[in-house]
TrEMBL record:
<dbReference type="InterPro" id="IPR006694">
    <property type="entry name" value="Fatty_acid_hydroxylase"/>
</dbReference>
<keyword id="KW-0812">Transmembrane</keyword>
<dbReference type="GO" id="GO:0016020">
    <property type="term" value="C:membrane"/>
</dbReference>
<dbReference type="Pfam" id="PF04116">
    <property type="entry name" value="FA_hydroxylase"/>
</dbReference>
<feature type="transmembrane region" description="Helical">
    <location>
        <begin position="75"/>
        <end position="100"/>
    </location>
</feature>
<keyword id="KW-0472">Membrane</keyword>
<dbReference type="GO" id="GO:0005506">
    <property type="term" value="F:iron ion binding"/>
</dbReference>
<feature type="domain" description="Fatty acid hydroxylase">
    <location>
        <begin position="175"/>
        <end position="283"/>
    </location>
</feature>
<keyword id="KW-1133">Transmembrane helix</keyword>
<protein>
    <submittedName>
        <fullName>Fatty acid hydroxylase domain-containing 2</fullName>
    </submittedName>
</protein>
<feature type="transmembrane region" description="Helical">
    <location>
        <begin position="130"/>
        <end position="152"/>
    </location>
</feature>
<dbReference type="InterPro" id="IPR050307">
    <property type="entry name" value="Sterol_Desaturase_Related"/>
</dbReference>
<feature type="transmembrane region" description="Helical">
    <location>
        <begin position="167"/>
        <end position="187"/>
    </location>
</feature>
<dbReference type="GO" id="GO:0016491">
    <property type="term" value="F:oxidoreductase activity"/>
</dbReference>
<dbReference type="GO" id="GO:0008610">
    <property type="term" value="P:lipid biosynthetic process"/>
</dbReference>
<feature type="transmembrane region" description="Helical">
    <location>
        <begin position="246"/>
        <end position="264"/>
    </location>
</feature>
């Protein structure tokens, strides 16, 4: 064997040794991790079983006393566990939230309000209407549906038996309940966001652009059946659950949906920011709202075209947290002193155009498009420049602008009005034979030498010559 072959052989043995060392190290790390995980799992299970065993005897004893108190009347027991106790949980939690929303106190809770200056305090008449609607939904829909569950549950077993379910069985049931509820609610929610159902059914729930806790059950009767009740009761019906499991599940559901609609991101509780955003702007939900308002906004590229494409970006909660950081931690220097901007954002900030666009979207929705829906024939906006074609005369337009300017001091509109032509940004908008077209567009150059506007022809079929 030559020197070269000997060298290659030794190098090969060295590589094998290094590989074997790596395998041993990996096996050691993985083995240690698995052993630690198994020990932790067994310890946790042992402690939970001890706790459940100790408390289980207590609850079994209390359930036996309650069973004897009702004389074995299983319908009464089922009604107590599946209707009365979950309803009390819902109203007790919401009573606290309603007091906070009506009084604006205490400050250590209201400081966590998601939509600043909304429901501060809440409109008492609007809240009263929501409460009445929820009570009617519970009396005429929820309670009858729960009562109809009883004969079905009886056919599956004994929902009010004297023996409580085991700890492990309850955990399994809850896992199934959550899975079934998530799937059914997701698709039922998509269904009520369909254009043919939204404006007749789900729009009622979205009347609250800044929701409060009780609004979780403020819904059209059809939606209350499809989205609120069925996804919740199907799981227990499939599992043939004991009434105590049903009671626990129903309480979790009503408290959870109340937190989601509360309007507060309280510490240690799930964040409802995404759902608040959904109420504020239902177009950016899992189904687009193809209403009249959106068609008016989708002119000259000022609105987002209704689309069914799924959102593929970062999680909405993450985006909201980043926006909050950018908008609330905005510092600038003036005369050798540093200041933090307490309202709005500086004009030179990269976030400013998007912030202004978002603010104007909410403003125009509440103070322009909804109040003047009947007279606005076409509507377009580029950040804070608005182009409208309305039905009426000069006094109508002046009254409209006067009303809009009275809504808030943050937005004050000035108006340029003409029956035939008006300048909008870099474009002269001209009414010609019942159609609006651009004419003599001016190409402005930006600082990087790119055109600020590209001439386009805009045809608005909804505008006819008889309007003017």
């Amino acid at each position: 064997m030559g020197k070269r072959e000997t060298s290659d052989f030794q190098e090969h043995r060295s590589q094998d040794g290094n590989l074997w060392d790596s395998v041993k190290k990996t096996a050691f790390v993985l083995g240690t991790g698995l052993l630690t995980f198994a020990a932790f799992r067994n310890t946790l299970t042992w402690h939970l079983q001890r706790f459940w065993g100790a408390s289980g005897d207590f609850w079994q004893s209390q359930w036996g006393k309650l069973h004897d108190y009702f004389g074995g009347n299983e319908l009464a027991l089922f009604s107590l566990g599946a209707m009365v106790i979950p309803s009390l949980s819902f109203w007790m939690y919401n009573a606290v939230l309603m007091i906070i929303d009506l009084t604006g106190k205490p400050n250590f809770i209201t400081r966590y309000r998601i939509q600043i200056e909304k429901n501060d305090p809440v409109d008492s008449a609007k809240l009263r209407h929501a409460v009445i609607t929820v009570i009617l939904n519970q009396i005429f829909i929820s309670f009858p549906m729960v009562l109809l569950m009883y004969p079905f549950m009886k056919s599956r077993g004994n929902p009010c038996g004297t023996e409580l379910p085991t700890f492990h069985w309850v955990l399994l049931e809850l896992a199934v309940f959550v899975l079934v509820e998530e799937i059914l609610f997701y698709y039922s929610h998509r269904l009520v966001h369909h254009p043919s159902l939204y404006k007749h059914v789900h729009k009622k729930h979205h009347e609250w652009t800044a929701p409060v806790g009780v609004v979780s059950l403020y819904a059209h009767p059809l939606e209350h059946i499809l989205s609120n009740m069925l996804p919740t009761i199907i799981g227990p019906m499939l599992m043939g659950s004991h009434v105590t499991s049903i009671m626990l599940w129903f309480c979790i559901v009503v408290i959870g949906t109340t937190i989601t609609h509360s309007g507060y991101h309280l510490p240690f509780l799930p964040s409802p920011q995404f759902h608040d955003f959904h109420h504020l702007n239902p177009r950016f939900s899992n189904e687009s709202y193809h209403g009249k308002r959106n068609k008016k906004q989708h002119c000259m590229g000022c609105g987002t075209k209704p689309s069914e494409d799924k959102y593929m970006g970062p999680p909405i909660e993450y985006v909201m947290e980043i926006l909050e950081l950018v908008l609330t931690q905005n510092y600038f220097r003036f005369e050798l002193e540093w200041y933090r901007q307490s309202a709005g954002t500086s004009m030179g900030a990269a976030m400013a155009p998007m912030y202004a666009n978002g603010y104007m979207f909410e403003f125009e929705t509440q103070h322009i498009l909804e109040p003047f829906n009947d007279i606005i024939l076409s509507y377009g906006r580029y950040i804070d420049d608005i182009f409208m074609i309305i039905k009426g005369d000069n006094s109508t337009a002046e009254s409209m602008v006067q009303y809009i300017n009275s809504c808030t001091l943050n937005v004050q509109l000035t108006m340029t009005m003409d029956p035939l032509t008006v300048d909008f940004l870099d474009v002269a908008m001209v009414m010609t034979f019942g159609r609006v077209i651009e004419r003599d567009a001016v190409r402005l150059q930006t600082c990087v030498g790119q055109p600020a506007a590209v001439p386009v022809r805009v045809s608005m079929e909804s505008v006819t010559s008889q309007v003017w």
